[in-house]
Amino acid sequence: LHLVALNLPFSGDMRADFQCFQQAQLAGLTTTYRAFLSSHLQDLATVVRKTDRHNLPIVNLKGEMLFKNWECIFNGNGGEFNIHVPIYSFDGRNVMTDPSWPQKVIWHGSTANGIRLVSNYCEAWHTAGLAAMGQASPLKMGKLLDQKAYSCSNQFIVLCIENSFVSDPQG
């Protein structure tokens, strides 16, 4: 399953699932992508289908492994990953080095176990208000689920996860 960033940073007021879907389509990707965010309807840990959580690696846009599987992200260690494996945007830029993302922080709105934090998810990702807070993680710490709260007015990286794997029947 591919983990890919949106092509621009976003404040806490975003239509992230729609953005993930649209940018994946524009990039020529045929599978479904969902935002790597907890929402008012769903905890982050359950965004990927149950059947795909254990047996599929989580890779970047170029197929380099970030996590052994989806479950590894939520084992309580904050989603530790190798910071030398780049995370790319849908248009192929490395979010860790590209200046389009001045703050190397990702929104997630979750606990370290992928459960939604209703006090810290920018009012279900509908506000960029200075006083509202959202849970996010500085990528330079090598964790996707570090537990830091930021004002929803910040423009941070939004990740998308491929949430349905379809094997090629010709394969």
Automatic annotation (TrEMBL):
Cited SUPFAM superfamilies: C-type lectin-like
Residue ranges annotated for the Collagenase NC10/endostatin domain, each copy included: 1-166
Name under which the protein is recorded: COFA1 protein
Highest classification ranks of the organism: Eukaryota, Metazoa, Chordata, Craniata, Vertebrata
